[in-house]
Design a protein that fits this description.
It is built from eleven helices and 17 strands. With 371 residues, it is α/β, with parallel strands linked by helices. The protein has two domains: 14-277, TIM Barrel (Alpha-Beta Barrel), CATH 3.20.20.70; 285-370, no CATH class. Helix 4 links the parallel strand 7 (120-125) and strand 8. Helix 3 packs parallel to helix 4 and helix 6 (188-201) runs parallel beside helix 8 (239-253). GO terms for molecular function: catalytic activity; iron-sulfur cluster binding; metal ion binding.
Length: 371
């Protein structure tokens, strides 16, 4: 049972407005994240481990860099993406960012120099490569929060002892230290052990993520007997419930802050809020911003776009400022109302649609309605 505050002021497990659960307070990095204010900076897909539950897509399991959905080819791409998002911080992830330490340190410095010391940066690492020298470089660059993800779920891991010993070194620096692990059903005792260790070392928090199926971990999870919550969900049955048990145990037995991050939070809150922030900065005058942060507008498709454009301006008398030729996607974009009127008035090979797409670099189309 999820409880609220007791009259005596004792902290219990609380459900947040973000469809997640917390004991104490959200880690600072999460506070920015749920508001959609964190740039997701993927610095490399390289990782010294090969976790059976890793959700990374095949095209990211390489030495590639992304700022949100944008492939990074220069530092300007990172800054531009952060500005489009109105980001107030960044989460540095991978792979393991420490597998490309110089690059990671360079990006931390870049963001701090561009946006100031208050730009909050947190980083995820396995801990395998977190030597004292590496940690010192990250701290000196301005990293605010470091989250360790040791190999709790694979028996006889050759990395485990090194991960734990390296994690202990992180407490010599003046940043926030915490743990972040998936809620893998069947490993409740291992996560409790990790929580106890974090508490003993003086960590601030433990984040537990609801485990989900992905394209790349599906077979490994099914082979281990894990099942989805339902046909409509990618969340794994029993993961959320186990996470809640750890939180209730942790509230009674440790002084850590806990956050159980659900699959719903990532889609319904984090992504949605980020899209809204981006949409305000990328929407053209003819585009509507929906409640979900997507862009909605009309389009016309035809073999000769220049011919169609001139016809719409000269013959249909559509103001030029209402039309935009998108050469890359081979279409003319316009307000929804204009597309609806033109679809009723123009016959022939011109096709009109109402489309809805993400305001992200890749502009994924989520809906197309023919007129």
């Amino acid at each position: 049972m999820i409880r609220g505050w007791l009259a005596e002021g004792i902290i219990m497990v609380q459900k947040t407005p973000y469809y997640s659960y917390v004991v104490g307070e959200l880690p600072k990095g999460c506070q920015y994240c749920v508001r959609g204010e964190k740039l997701v900076l993927f610095v490399t897909g390289v990782c010294p481990r090969n976790c059976f539950y890793c959700p990374l897509s095949p095209w990211r399991r390489k030495d590639v860099v992304y700022a949100n959905e944008r492939p990074v080819r220069s530092e300007k791409d990172i800054i531009e993406e952060a500005k489009i998002q109105d980001a107030r911080g960044a989460g540095i992830t991978g792979g393991d960012p420490l597998a490309r330490l110089s690059r990671t340190v360079e990006y931390i410095r870049l963001l701090k120099e561009e946006f100031g010391k208050k730009f909050h940066i947190h980083l995820y690492t396995t801990g395998i490569l977190a030597s004292e020298e590496a940690l010192e470089k990250l701290y000196d660059a301005g990293l605010d929060e470091i989250r360790f993800h040791p190999d709790l779920f694979q028996p006889n891991s050759k990395f485990f002892e090194r991960e734990i010993e390296n994690m202990k070194k992180a407490f010599d620096f003046g940043w926030d230290v915490g743990g972040e692990v998936p809620a893998v059903p069947g490993f409740e005792d291992r996560i409790k052990w990790f929580a106890s260790l974090l508490d003993k070392l003086g960590a601030k928090f433990l984040n537990i993520n609801e485990l989900e199926f992905s394209e790349t971990n599906l077979r490994a999870l099914l082979d281990r007997g894990y099942k989805p919550v339902s046909d409509e969900s990618s969340a794994i049955k029993g993961s959320l419930e186990m996470g809640l048990k750890v939180l209730e145990w942790g509230e009674k037995n440790t002084s850590l802050n806990y956050h159980l991050c659900t699959a719903k939070l990532k889609d319904a809150v984090q992504l949605r809020n980020r899209l809204k922030r981006m949409a305000k900065n990328v929407a053209r005058p003819y585009m509507e911003i929906t409640e979900d942060g997507t862009l909605r507008f009309g389009i016309a498709e035809y073999d000769d776009l220049e011919e169609l454009y001139e016809f719409l301006v000269e013959e249909a008398e559509v103001p030029r400022e209402w039309l935009y030729i998108n050469w890359e996607k081979k279409r003319i974009e316009m307000p929804v109302e204009v597309a609806e009127e033109l679809a009723d008035a123009i016959e022939g090979d011109v096709k009109f649609y109402i489309v809805e797409e993400y305001p992200t670099w890749d502009r994924i189309e989520v809906e197309r309605i023919p007129l």
